[in-house]
Predict the 3D structure of the following.
Amino acid sequence: MSTPPLIFLLLLALAGLTWIFVPILTGIPWVPTLARRTQRALELASLQPGEIFYDLGCGDGRVLISAARRGARAIGIEVSPLHCLIALIRAALAGVGGRVAVRWGNFYRCDLSDADVIYWYGHSRYGEKLKSYLERQLRVGARVVSINVDFPGWQPEALDRENLIFLYRIPPPVGDINSYLMQKAMD
């Protein structure tokens, strides 16, 4: 095998390892959101043109593209540099590169105070830490849409049971999913 193909294969292997292991080592592995769940989450959050939308752990940028197509200013925060690059390329190819920004880093170190909507597809073991961070960062009226994870001590404003999507508005009422369901049963 000649040197150029060998170098190419090594670079490809390194990119693949980066794609897989950086997210795993720094938190949770990358798992793409199904398109129907993304669309439902954006509907539930009532994302409007001109709003500022953050995707915490944006992966390959597919949610950012959906938000930008709705007219939002979409900002992704991602710990994997390879995912950042792919997200930017995908946004440009989708024709929404001017409304999408991707920041390489840890979202716990980012200023989210200008957010209208925060999107998060995460794991329950990080819910409490993220909840505390969002309480300090977000302004009154900001919305948080979470896939798969509810936040302990926060009562959702809305819930899509089929897709397991939770919507919260800051400051959320004290409660939980059970208080939400009881309230809905009484309505």
Notes: The domain at 3-186 is CATH 3.40.50.150 (Rossmann fold). The beta strands are 52-56, 73-78, 100-104, 117-121, 143-147, 158-160, 165-169.
